[in-house]
């Protein structure tokens, strides 16, 4: 946003007629964590000329879900560390008998569960309730305690994995150009016929 401000000033936008406005929750795009517009005051009022959307890691997560491919970046850590992970363990014999060809899909869906979902699965198993996993195609599969268990395992990490976030600036060049022309247009005092672009 600071770079956008400097750019707009450098091309001729009057800083007194430039502001940044944060989107309210009810006007934010479904993929955005936060969004700020650079708005320029013209004869038409305040118009949005640049949008800055914090898309977080929405896009990569959607691609990962659709393709069942892990899309993460890695960063080496100075010293390996051992962590305890809670992981679902599918009973493929029972799952295969119940769901036939969908067994492999269910195994993949279980492997992709995040920490909070594994906790929900564990709670469901402990209380003898079923747990539902949803595929990308919208189908749901109801799993019971004889189909899946949850266990803790130790894992030594040599790298840290994270899903990169994206900040998306979107410039309305036509609007900016119009605002530059309007902000540069001047009339001489007491002489409407003498107009200049400064």
UniProtKB/TrEMBL annotation:
- One annotated GO biological process: mitochondrial glycyl-tRNA aminoacylation
- What Gene3D superfamilies does the record tag this protein with? 3.30.720.200, Bira Bifunctional Protein, Domain 2
Q: Which InterPro entries match?
A: aa-tRNA-synth_II/BPL/LPL (IPR045864), Gly-tRNA_synthase/POLG2 (IPR027031)
Q: Name one GO cellular component term.
A: mitochondrion
GO molecular function, a single term: glycine-tRNA ligase activity
> What protein am I looking at?
Glycyl-tRNA synthetase
Q: Which organism's genome codes for this protein?
A: Panagrolaimus superbus
């Amino acid at each position: 946003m600071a770079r956008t401000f400097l750019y707009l000033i450098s091309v001729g936008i009057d800083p007194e007629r430039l502001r940044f406005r944060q989107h309210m929750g009810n006007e934010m795009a479904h993929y955005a964590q936060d969004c700020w517009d650079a708005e320029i005051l013209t004869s038409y009022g305040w118009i949005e000329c640049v949008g800055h959307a914090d898309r977080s890691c929405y896009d990569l997560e959607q691609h990962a879900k659709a393709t069942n491919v892990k899309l993460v970046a890695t960063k080496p850590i100075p010293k390996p560390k051992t962590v305890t992970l809670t992981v679902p363990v599918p009973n493929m014999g029972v799952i295969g008998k119940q769901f036939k060809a969908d067994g492999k899909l269910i195994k993949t869906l279980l492997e992709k569960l995040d920490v909070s979902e594994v906790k929900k699965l564990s709670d469901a198993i402990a209380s003898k309730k079923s747990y539902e996993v949803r595929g990308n195609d919208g189908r749901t599969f109801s799993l019971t305690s004889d189909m899946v268990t949850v266990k803790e395992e130790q894992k030594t990490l040599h790298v840290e994995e994270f899903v990169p976030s994206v900040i998306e600036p979107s410039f309305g060049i036509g609007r900016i150009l119009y605002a530059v022309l309007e902000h540069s247009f001047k009339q001489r005092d007491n002489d409407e016929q003498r107009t200049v672009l400064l």
